[in-house]
Amino acid sequence: MFVILPGSWLSHNFLKGQFKISSQKQIAEVARQGISEVTVDYARSDNLPINDTITVEELEHISHSDAPVDPKNEPPPAKWCSQDVVPQAFLSAIEDKSLPPEHKSKVVYDHSVEMMKKLLDSPTAENIRASKGAISAITDMILSDDQTANNLLRITSHDFYTYTHSVNVGVTGIMLSKELFKKSDAHNLHELGAGFFLHDLGKINVDAAIINKPGRLTDAEMKRMRIHPYQGYKILEQADALSEECRYIIMQHHELDDGSGYPKRLKGDGIHIYGKMCCIADIFDALTAERSYKKAMSPFDALKLMKGEMAYHFDRELFESFVLLFR
Q1: Whole-angstrom Cα distance, residue 9 to residue 156?
Q2: Phi, psi at 124, each rounded to 5°
Q3: Helices (H), 156-261
Q4: For a 10 Å CB count at each end of the chain, is N or C smaller?
């Protein structure tokens, strides 16, 4: 049985967080480390259980059993499994302290884009949980490695695919969180990072023709586009991966300070600080991205536009903190 341990690979003593159980000794070691449940990857398992998440006690029992599995209980295979969504090379690069910051930031960025592309292609609960674990590792790296983090901020791609946009907003959102909350223990930066990276997850339920339309959306198309915050909320809720931080970010990243945003037209103090942070990062990335109908703006020009013509959309103090990231 191929098992996936909960949490990041830093939370246990196994070399990998995903492996095939080959001995009773491995099961005992899983239990000894306080892990009570594991997830089973059906595609890589020889002996399939009924449920995709099982207790370690059940794992021990199944390992002694030759009982056949009812194929009706086996779920259809995902296009990507969690092992593919977050490759071990990605996690190894994040932990490798010998990599020069310029090289490390490029490797981490490219793998992050690949991860988000695969996740949006196959947003299963298992893949969402695996991606959140990887995002936690990225968050830890940004918080602890200033040089790599600063390089990461400056190599963001200027295309506007949803997966590259998700990574760009994820990186800038975590950097803003670092700037604002580095002296506070009151914020869960791992869940904030997950919220920033997954803020547009609901777009998988919006027609791609609307998302990629070269130009202004019609009223009907805009109505469809405005469902994506709620769709993202529902996807994470159904995957049992919805934290309060993710909820605020996903539901409020299009709310504007003057009340002209969506989906609830919240304004001012009615918008949570996490939603306001993501809104700034989201608009900045949209301005600096190249589209078929517009050229990319430089970071300086985008910030100048946001400060001048769009100032009423943002919390002034938050925006000033955001500008400091590019000093």
Answers
A1: 26
A2: -70, 160
A3: 162-181, 189-197, 208-211, 219-225, 228-238, 244-252
A4: C
Beta bridge partners of 291: 294
Q: Which of 124, 163, 137, 134 is nearest to 43 (CA)?
A: 124
pLDDT reading at 307 higher than 80: yes
- Residue identified by tokens 């200027």 is 158
The owner of tokens 């769709």 is 231
Residues sharing a CB contact under 8 Å with residue 155, sequence separation 6 or more, in sequence order: 105, 106, 109
68-84 exposure pattern, b = at least 16 Cβ within 10 A, e = fewer: eeeeeeeeeebebbbbb
Per-residue pLDDT, 72: 38
> Quick one: CA dihedral 76, 82, 83, 87, positive or negative?
positive
**Closest C-alpha to 141, from 210, 180, 90:** 90
Tell the burial category of 292 from Cβ atoms under 10 Å away from its Cβ (0-12, 13-18, 19+): exposed
For residue range 215-248, list pLDDT tens digits in order. Answer: 888 999 999 999 999 999 999 999 999 999 999 9
215 secondary structure, DSSP code:
S
The model's pLDDT over 87-137, given as tens digits with 9 standing for 90+, comes to 778 888 898 889 999 999 999 999 999 999 999 988 999 999 999 999 999
Residue 142 contacts residue 182 (beta carbons within 8 Å): no
Instruction: State phi, psi for 264 to the nearest 5 degrees.
Output: -115, 5
Residue 8 — pLDDT band, cuts 50, 70, 90? Answer: low
- The span from the CA of 215 to the CA of 311, in Å, is 23
Tokens for 178, please give them: 């670092």
Q: What are phi and psi of 255, to 5 degrees?
A: -80, 135
**Measured between alpha carbons, how far is 324 from 327 in angstroms, rounded to an integer?**
5
pTM above 0.90, yes or no: no
